Amino acid sequence: MIDRGQNPQCCGRVSSLYLDYGADAHNSADDPFEISERGMWFRSRWKFEIGTQLSVALICPHPRLGLSRVTAEGIVVWCEPSRDDDKAFECTLLFLDLPDELKQSLRELSCRLESVE
């Protein structure tokens, strides 16, 4: 699971990766991160096999509802050692069939994240 939150007052970000409901965690606050309605790219200390299915939770502020949690399922389609960090892997996750309202939420999240970074 990936949690990403943003405090609108400080314009910072918090990013973490959790395996097995928190049995193992990795703070990735300084790592690059990209997301769209089709999938996401992230850096991890874990190597995921191609075809691994992951559940992703993204937390961000919603203009009317406050913090809002969006959950999506995806398949790892690429995972290779990072060129910049020999202890990390660069991973691409392709989201599985998403309902239209979830696609819209991911589009909005992507736009918000781009304006913060």
Walk me through the structure.
The protein has one helix at residues 100-116, and strands at 2-5, 14-19, 24-27, 33-35, 39-44, 53-62, 66-81, 89-95. The two termini are 21 Å apart. It is mainly beta and 117 residues long. Strand 1 (2-5) and strand 2 form a beta hairpin. The model is unreliable at 1-12 (pLDDT under 50). The chain has 1 helix and 8 strands. The strands form 2 sheets. A 5-stranded antiparallel β-sheet has the order 4-5-8-7-6. It has a single domain, classed as Beta Barrel (Thrombin, subunit H). The longest helix has 17 residues, at 100-116. Helix content is 15%, strand content 48%.
Q: In terms of structural class, how would the helical and strand content be classed?
A: mainly beta
**What's the number of domains?**
1
Strand tally is 8
Report how far apart the termini are. Answer: 21 Å
Strand % is over 45%
| Element-by-element helix/strand order | EEEEEEEEH
CATH topology: Thrombin, subunit H
Q: Quaternary status of these chains? A: single chain
Helix tally? 1
For the CA atoms, what is the radius of gyration? 14 Å
Biggest β-sheet strands, sense, barrel: 5 strands, antiparallel
Low-confidence stretches: 1-12
Q: Could you give a short description of this structure?
A:
By secondary structure, this protein is mainly β.
Properties at a glance:
48% strand, 1 helix, Thrombin, subunit H, 117 residues, 5-stranded antiparallel beta sheet, single chain, 3-stranded antiparallel beta sheet, mainly beta
